[in-house]
Amino acid sequence: MSIFRFDLPTTGIQPSEKLLVIKLRVLLVYAGSVAAFFVPPTPALLALMLMGFYLRTFGWEGGHHRYFAHRSFKTSRAFQFVLACLGASSGQRGPLWWACFHRAHHRHADTPQDPHTPVGNGRMYAYLGWLFDKNNCDTNLDDAKDLTRYPELVWVNKYHYLLPYLYLAGVYALGQWTPLFGGDAGIAAVVWGFFVSTLLSLQGSLLVNAFAHSPRPGWFTYRSYRTPDTSLNHWLLCLLSLGASWHNNHHRYMNSARAGFRWWELDITYLTLRALAAVGLVWDLREVPEHVLLEASRPDEGGLSTDRGDRQ
Ligand SMILES: [Zn+2]
Ligand SMILES: [Zn+2]
């Protein structure tokens, strides 16, 4: 069956599913979450939801973003595959697609070539619209040659949609056939452990796109660095995005494994990476140079810069 092809091309355009399918899948996450109003949460269901949120948000922020897009730490080929699967299970598609579009975002931040800037497009486009733009669906494998060396990553990128379904099936099995949720609770486990947790995890990424770039820093935001883009540190989103919302810091020094630069800028992804490094699953975490940390201006003093050079 073609769905399980393992001899996929590693160059050129890897086509995505049809745009309608992509839209329906996102819609399904929102619609499925509405069912939570009819399924009372229990402590066990909430724990399942939070665990799924944490694991899979780490999948896209620690995996798709900091590892695949920025190569900010090293790991084994096996754990790299685990990260790719975790990231894909969050509903944020494959690691190569994520890395290509995110690298384009950094390269062209807040210009017309930026795939999801709210500048000039509006917040709704940065939030969801860009995902439904047919120009942003396929993966140009030639833009991620460092990753296409691994056929298993090309495979996950192509069949990324299997991973959320696998996660859903696992969650159903836990609810239905284990005593953890009182038994016969497969549907309730899917509603809270899959739909609500996927919706929350997705919000972390989409809200950062929509609200961590703006020419007018507003509520909950500040700039620490004079970057040539409109990136903002958004403290209210730091839990929901596991640290991805320290976005102005990140645009200043994007290849660091760390995005929260001040002691109070909580960066759960970085803390998780430190814990994984302590047990030897990842290593060589790229840190932020001292001069970059010192360079941070006081909150709200980081104006716009026209200098696009000399940034990592
Ligand atoms: Zn950005
Ligand atoms: Zn980035």
Automatic annotation (TrEMBL):
It comes from the Bacteria. GO terms for biological process: fatty acid biosynthetic process. The keyword Lipid metabolism applies. It is found in: Membrane. GO terms for molecular function: oxidoreductase activity, acting on paired donors, with oxidation of a pair of donors resulting in the reduction of molecular oxygen to two molecules of water. Its main location: membrane. The chain crosses the membrane at residues 27-55, 159-175, 187-212. It is a multi-pass membrane protein. One of its GO terms (cellular component) is membrane. Residues 44-276 form the Fatty acid desaturase domain. It holds the Pfam family FA_desaturase. Keywords: Fatty acid biosynthesis, Fatty acid metabolism, Iron, Lipid biosynthesis, Lipid metabolism, Membrane, Oxidoreductase, Transmembrane, Transmembrane helix. Belongs to the fatty acid desaturase type 2 family. This is Delta-9 acyl-phospholipid desaturase. It comes from Hydrogenophaga intermedia. The lineage of its organism: Bacteria, Pseudomonadati, Pseudomonadota, Betaproteobacteria, Burkholderiales.
